[in-house]
Design goal:
The protein is mainly alpha-helical. Helix content is about 55%, strand content about 5%. The protein has ten helices and seven strands. α2 runs antiparallel to α7. The termini are far apart.
């Protein structure tokens, strides 16, 4: 005899709440993974571990929030605490493996294939480990087609999320990627649940199945992952690189930085030549010797650069601004008549 299954015992409340948790965990995990790529090696493992824990906690919380709406009319349902905790550990561990692979190897084809398969199988394993922790007077039976399809969705969603973690830049693109990731993860869960049936045991006066009820075990257990997601959200919110993005944060810091003072310009006097009649040359004028300006259409006389290189080479200018040669400064001596 098969039991009557209702996966939406509380209507649309549990699917929407599960989707929100999947999106929250994915968004925080993606942003932390992106942040690890912009940091030095000392902080990189910490950001990757925080991202893996956020994604794993979000997926696990999504699963059990959705399971709170699961109901079998003919039998009560309880949960084994050890297997429930094991499903949480598996979710965080396998996501961590995938995140660390792409965090250190990048979005190469081999890295994405390895990380996507590992993470996808791990997420699907978390789902079915959690389902195996259910206790009821019946046996769970799965449709092979639904199980295969749910695993494929998990692998595709994990690969897409890991690719987005190292390839998508900017706050809004990563937010959009997390919304798509939430759809994929939630779809994986309900795809697997669509192929579930419960074959009831025939019993007379038997005791109800041992274990804790859904509310008595899930509400206290979800307090831990929810608190962690809240803490991760605070870390992300107060990190300027994650909020503004690398380009925006760099631009903001550059705008806020004061401009370096420029060296004062050297005042050059009017006129031409390297000598200044009647006055000493201003400070810094020696740097311009040898680069004398001449009026348009004129050329420096031969040896003008040699004369300009020594102070006081000429003091007079003609009507066209050309330097007049100085009188000879030969030492006085006896004259020798020409022969």
């Amino acid at each position: 005899m098969h039991g009557t299954i209702d996966g939406f015992n509380y209507g649309a409340v549990t699917p929407l709440a599960a989707y929100v948790m999947a999106c929250l965990g994915s968004a925080l995990g993606l942003r932390c993974t992106i942040r690890s790529l912009r940091n030095d090696s000392s902080w990189k493992p910490g950001w990757l571990a925080l991202g893996a824990a956020a994604i794993g906690s979000g997926i696990w919380t999504m699963h059990f929030v959705a399971m709170m709406g699961f109901h079998v009319a003919e039998t009560p349902i309880s949960y084994d605490l050890r297997q429930t905790v094991l499903s949480l550990v598996v979710a965080i561990a396998v996501v961590g493996v995938g995140v660390f692979i792409v965090g250190y190897r990048g979005a190469t084809r081999a890295a994405l294939l390895t990380a996507g398969l590992t993470t996808g199988f791990g997420v699907a394993g978390m789902h079915y480990i959690g389902m195996a922790g259910m206790r009821m007077n019946g046996r769970l039976e799965y449709s092979p087609v639904a199980v295969t399809l749910s695993v494929l969705i998990a692998v595709a969603a994990a690969t897409a999320a890991l690719w987005a973690a190292v390839s998508v830049k900017g706050f809004l693109p990563s937010l959009g990627a997390s919304l798509v990731m939430g759809v994929a993860v939630t779809g994986m869960h309900y795809t697997g649940m669509s192929g579930l049936s419960v074959r009831l045991h025939e019993y007379h006066g038997a005791q109800p199945p041992a274990g804790d009820t859904a509310f008595s075990i899930m509400l206290p257990m979800m307090a831990g992952p929810l608190s962690f997601l809240l803490l991760a959200a605070v870390v992300v919110m107060f990190d300027p690189v994650l909020v503004l993005g690398e380009g925006e944060w760099t631009a903001t810091a550059a705008t806020a930085a004061p401009e370096a003072p420029r060296p004062p310009a050297v005042a050059r006097p009017e006129g031409h030549g390297a000598a200044y009649p009647g006055a000493a040359p201003p400070a810094g004028a020696a740097a311009y010797r040898g680069t004398t300006a001449y009026p348009a259409g004129t050329a420096p006389s031969p040896g003008a650069y040699d004369r300009a290189a020594s102070p006081g080479a000429y003091d007079r200018l003609d009507g066209r601004g050309r330097a007049l040669p100085q009188p000879s400064r030969r030492p006085a001596g006896p004259s020798h008549p020409s022969s």
